[in-house]
Amino acid sequence: MKTRQLLAIAASLLLLGACKGKYEPINNDNDHLASSADSAASSATEPKLVKTASINFKVRNVEQTSMQLTALTTLYQGMVMHHHVSSSIENTRDTRVSNDSVMRVSAIRTVAELEVKVPSVKLNQFMDEVSKMGLYVAERKMDIDDKSLDYLAAQMKLNSRNQIISQQKKGRIVIRDPGAVVNLKDDMIDQQITNMKIDEAVKYSIVDLSFYQSNHINKEIIANDDPANYTSPFFTRLKVAFSNGFMIFQSVVLAIANLWLLIVCAFALYFGIAYYRKRKRTATLNTANI
Q1: CA–CA gap between residue 98 and residue 259 (Å, rounded)
Q2: How many CB atoms are closer than 10 A to CB 202?
Q3: Which pLDDT band, with edges at 50, 70 and 90, does 159 fall under?
Q4: How far apart are CA 81 and CA 117, in angstroms?
Q5: Quick one: pLDDT band at residue 27, thresholds 50, 70, 90?
Q6: Domain ranges for the chain
Q7: Contact by Cβ (8 Å): 154, 44
Q8: Quick one: pLDDT at residue 5?
Q9: Phi, psi at residue 166, to the nearest 5°?
Q10: Spatial separation of the C-alpha atoms in residues 112 and 103, rounded to whole Å
Q11: Residue 287 and residue 282: Cα distance in Å, rounded?
């Protein structure tokens, strides 16, 4: 009873405040406003409780659990709003099989995220069924947000604006600014949408599901992408080495042949200098003997 009286008083105050300012009342209608406030308060006596939940758990197989959760959600007359599966490589190692092949061994971690919407009256049952699918539950959480006052405020504002529009049509209230009528109707639409969203959130609960499995090993044979491993056999390379050596020898001979004139001049200069030094020593010895 106290809650109902407080809601009725709050409704009356909000309605009186909403009717002041931009509008010029011609006739008083306090009885009508009071009755509207009482009706708004009585309509909001039902609590508007928005439930949300989340579970984080480990499973044997992420892919199979995803399909089971989708089927379970359908069974509970719910809907999958978001589904995301991802795999990441935790560690990898390459083992050479042949010159052109490598066996790659990878440790892969797979996780999944689901966001489902289920009827609020079946939320606890749904959570229990989901918990049974996992090896163990790492975290389970449920929150309840009371939207009763928000719903009441939006409903009271909507009623007050409905009354103003009705009285304006009857000529009992004069709205001097035509743009105010448009704004008033836009506010009414926003408040209707707000309450519709609250009703939807009260009727259906959002559940965030995140689950994962143990790392699994994946083996695959892939092409060897290291160019250094693509070399010829030893004897083939030895044959190529002899051939390359003979080609280098030929190049050296050709280079010497191209420089024959310089070589002749070098020899002539060498012998000329040697001959000059020998004659000089001979002349020096003859002079000393005399």
Answers
A1: 50
A2: 19
A3: confident
A4: 7
A5: very low
A6: 232-279
A7: no
A8: 47
A9: -65, -45
A10: 28
A11: 9
Nearest to 205 by CA among 58, 55, 71: 55
Answer whether residue 17 shows pLDDT above 60. no
Q: Which residues pair with residue 101 across a beta bridge?
A: 98, 223
Mind spelling out the 3-state secondary structure of the chain?
A: CHHHHHHHHHHHHHHHHHCCCCEEECCCCHHHHHHHHHHHHHHCCCCCEEEEEEEEEECCCHHHHHHHHHHHHHHCCCEEEEEEEEEEEEEEEEEEEECCEEEEEEEEEEEEEEEEEEEHHHHHHHHHHHHHHCCEEEEEEEEEEECHHHHHHHHHHHHHHHHHHHHHHHCCEEECCHHHHHHHHHHHHHHHHHHHHHHHHHHEEEEEEEEECCCEEEEEEEECCCHHHCCCCHHHHHHHHHHHHHHHHHHHHHHHHHCHHHHHHHHHHHHHHHHHHHHHHHHHHHHHHC
Strand partners for 144: 51
Closest Cα partner for 206 from 74, 49, 51, 71?
51
Q: Whole-angstrom Cα distance, residue 205 to residue 125?
A: 12
Is 10's pLDDT higher than 90? no
Q: Which residues contact 275 (CB under 8 A, 6 or more apart)?
A: none
How much is the mean pLDDT over the chain? 81
The answer, yes or no, to whether residue 224 has pLDDT greater than 70, is: yes
Give the phi and the psi of residue 35 in degrees, each rounded to 5.
-65, -35
* CA separation for the pair 127, 56 (Å, rounded): 11
Mean pLDDT of the region 10-22: 45
At residue 270 the predicted structure's pLDDT band, cuts being 50, 70 and 90, is: confident
Are the CB atoms for 72 and 130 separated by under 8 Å?
yes
Q: Which residue has the tokens 């002539």?
A: 268
